[in-house]
Amino acid sequence: MNKNTKRWQEASQKAHRTARWAKTMTKWLISRNHNRGAKWHVVNFVGSHNSESRGIVDLLAIRKDHQTHDDKIKRGDLFEIILIQVKGGNTPFPKTKDVVRLKEVSKYCHAKAILLSEWKPRKKLQLYILKRNKWIEIKPNEIF
């Protein structure tokens, strides 16, 4: 094995580890910030060998909506859904085409919000919400 191949493999393993930690830290943050209403459940989409799966959404936060809407839909029948894309390490923010994809998925599944979670080793996890094509930093208790 040559030096370049070995360096590439080490960088790939480090990126994979950072991505897993970014998702873990995001799930932890969501579990700690459910002060009001039903508890949020986080769905992690993983591919083979516990690696990232295809698609624009990395995590999905979901909980039952316990508001009464009308006579046809009873309390607890509907869900609140939040789409989350997770970035770890030095990964750049989503490009314009990725934002368009996220918005299409959000529209399709009637998501309440689109979030970006950014985690860097030895740094505080940052959450951003997509508003009018801009990522705005928020505190976890503003959404969860």
Please tell me about this protein's structure.
31% of the residues lie in helices and 28% in strands. It has 144 residues and is an alpha+beta fold. It has a single domain, classed as Trna Endonuclease, Chain: A, domain 1. The protein has a 6-stranded mixed β-sheet with strand order 1-2-3-4-5-6. The longest helix has 30 residues. The termini are far apart.
Approximate strand percentage: 25-35%
Uncertain runs are none
Spatial order of the strands forming the largest sheet: 1-2-3-4-5-6
Mean pLDDT: 86
SSE order, as H and E? Answer: HEEEHEEE
Question: What's the SSE blueprint?
Answer:
Layout: H1 3-32, E1 41-44, E2 59-65, E3 78-88, H2 96-109, E4 113-119, E5 126-131, E6 134-138
Parallel strand pairs: 3-4
Antiparallel strand pairs: 1-2, 2-3, 4-5, 5-6
